[in-house]
Design goal:
globular, three-stranded mixed β-sheet, alpha/beta, about 240 residues, binds zinc ion, about 45% helix, TIM Barrel, 9 helices
Length: about 240
């Protein structure tokens, strides 16, 4: 009897990850690929003039990106929002209100996602809508709701202090060195909303020039996922 229980326990431990993956959506931070591809992602928009300035830069450089928008901003700036996908970029869901979700109920989480999906669709966007939680927060509640909704949970492996207005005036050595260290298959977090984002616009220009000169392509998250051998998640 003891050996049966021991074997069962071993089985559960061995398959724990797979069992959890049936119930909870695993966050994706990066894609394992040797191809020279990077997915730039922008959170907290749409917000003029920064979203449009970034769209223009992407367009001039034949690059694509993914914009994780807030429902309330889509409502406030519908024409800026539409430019995102009319320029061929991808749209993601970053909730309606930008609350921290790891302390909220499942019904609250679901409502925030459904409302934001609805306005994105009402505006005429037809592509995939993946999800990124505000503040990159994670919880079983968030992951459970996303699994139920069959929605991918996209986080990131690279982020910058692009929201700091002194990013370029008083550059931090760690931040500057990170610009040179973006690996293939990265999902990079940047911000087009939530405040003065002139530093972000400059950073996008620098990243595009630097990596395109080395043969890198800037693609949407959906395109990046199609490159995966194995996605790298965080897990619990
Ligand atoms: Zn955010």
């Amino acid at each position: 009897m003891l050996s049966i229980i021991a074997n069962l326990w071993c089985l559960i431990r061995h398959y724990k990850h797979s069992i959890l993956a049936i119930i909870f959506e695993e966050p994706i931070k990066q894609v394992n690929t040797n191809e020279k591809v990077i997915a730039l992602t922008f959170d907290d928009g749409p917000k003029p003039p920064y979203t449009e300035q970034i769209l223009e830069l992407l367009y001039q450089n034949n690059a694509k990106a993914t914009f994780f928008v807030l429902g309330r901003n889509v409502k406030q700036y519908p024409n800026v929002f539409k430019k995102i996908f009319l320029y061929g970029n991808e749209v993601g869901n970053h909730t309606w209100d930008h609350d921290r979700l790891d302390v909220k109920s499942r019904s609250f989480i679901e409502e925030q996602i459904v409302l934001t999906d609805k306005i994105i669709r009402d505006m005429g966007y037809q592509g995939n809508i993946y999800f990124r939680s505000p503040y990159g927060s994670q919880s079983y509640g968030i992951q459970y709701v996303l699994k139920k909704m069959n929605k991918k949970f996209i986080l990131y492996n690279m982020s910058f202090r692009d929201w700091d207005n002194n990013f370029w005036d008083r550059p931090h050595p760690v931040q500057i060195s990170k610009i040179f260290e973006i690996p293939s298959g990265s999902i990079v977090l940047l911000h087009d909303g939530g405040g003065d984002r002139h530093s972000t616009v400059e950073l996008v220009e620098v990243i595009l020039k630097k990596y395109q000169s080395k043969g890198y392509k800037f693609i949407t998250v959906s395109e990046l996922l199609s490159y995966h051998n194995q996605t790298v998640g965080i897990g619990f």
